[in-house]
Amino acid sequence: MPISGIPRTPSRAELIEHLVKTRIAGDVATPRENNLSHYRQLANGNRNYWLGLELGDRWTDEQDVLAVMAERVGVNDDPEYRHGQDTIDPALTVDGLNRLAARLRKAADGHHRVLFATGHPGGLLDVHRATAAALRAAGCEIMVIPDGLQTEEGYVWQVADVAVLEHGATLWHTHSGEPMRQILTAWERTGKQLPDLVVADHGWAGYAGQHGIDSVGYADCNDPGLFIAEAEGTVQVAVPLDDHVVSPRHYDPMVAYLLAEAGL
């Protein structure tokens, strides 16, 4: 079923060209020094960079984190490259979209219960909204979160089928897993069935996967947690991309490709 506002479906080659042109992938805006700083913070045990996951002492070497990011995202694998531009391999982005599409197809075929959430509403809200609309049209239940949930950062709301964090009348950027914890805990307290699938990003996806729910989503090259979780099998799919480019409309061809690959 076509989703209003999404352009025709690009081919793989056309999408790769578009991703590079809009800097969703290719030479992205995130500098190398920021990437390495985040990898170091994760390795040093800073939970703000664990994205709702429990990594224990398995990832205490920054070079191991870099190796995962080079393999799964396409950042420069040279540990001596410390400053300058870093990259996301657009072919890996499309490969991730293909894996995500397969999991969405499974959800559609099984009429699964699906929860959508984002910690990057400025960039990814409409990506999730369009995907939710397509799954609803295919017979899935798009889950509605409980009212009255709150974290130290703000209120847990739902906008256009997507759970978000609200703070000061503004949709809030967060990497925390706490909003997802609040949702799942509230459902468990009342005996409501949990989602079959969470489609999200950042701590929303990480915490859901850690909780044992099938979890898929998007992550930037400075957010290694979800790629580590994918490597360990805690998260099923992590799609590498710049999660906040200059215009959210730049993601539309990507969504069109994703939905077409999923047969939605």
Automatic annotation (TrEMBL):
Pfam hit, one: Phosphatase
Source taxon at top rank: Bacteria
InterPro entries with a match to the protein in the record: Phosphatase_SCO2771 (IPR031423)
Protein name: Phosphatase
Lineage of source species: Bacteria, Bacillati, Actinomycetota, Actinomycetes, Kitasatosporales
